[in-house]
Amino acid sequence: MPPKPTTDQIASFFATAPPNIPKAFVEFHRQHGAVSVDLNSEDCGFVFLWPLADVLQMSREYGFDEFCPGIIGVGSDGGGGLYAFDLRTPERVPIGLISATCLEYTDYLSIDDSFESFAIRLLAGTPTE
After folding, report:
1. How far apart (Å, rounded) are the C-alpha atoms in residues 9 and 83?
2. Which of 33, 47, 52, 53 could hold 2 in an S-S bridge, CB 3.0 to 4.6 Å?
3. In this predicted model, what pLDDT tens digit does every residue of 84-99 receive, in sequence order?
4. Are 112 and 118 in contact (CB under 8 A)?
């Protein structure tokens, strides 16, 4: 079973995360933890959501803060792509993919309008661990 964040990790995440990070993303982690899912039937491929406690650090380490401010990495596709939220428009926070080697706004590909609808696809996928 994937690791679920502790209450302290969730509080720490909310204290340091951008204010418009989708609450559904944190709730998903609270219920399911970091997941690894195969969504090939959905044309998304492999999805590994990073553990909530690691999201902000991993996003910084990949260079989002420097090269793509307003976009925050939350996971990987295992093949050079990173799942990320585009937080630049507070009223709409899509989730999409961006190349780990070329963090440019023009390379961000929105794959779902909200984490809620993306989570439905995740839960319908095939766990890989």
Report:
1. 21
2. 33
3. 999 998 888 999 999 9
4. yes
Give me 113's structure tokens. 């309008």
Length of the chain: 129
Quick check: 22 and 94 in contact, CB under 8 A?
no
The edge-to-edge listing of strands for the beta sheet with 45-49 is 109-112, 95-99, 81-86, 71-76, 45-49, 36-39, 126-127
Structure token pair of residue 84 = 């990320």
Q: What is the pLDDT of residues 17-75, one digit of tens each?
A: 999 999 999 999 999 988 888 776 555 678 899 999 999 999 999 999 999 999 999 99
Go through the domains of the chain in sequence order and give each one's CATH number: 7-127 (3.40.1580.10)
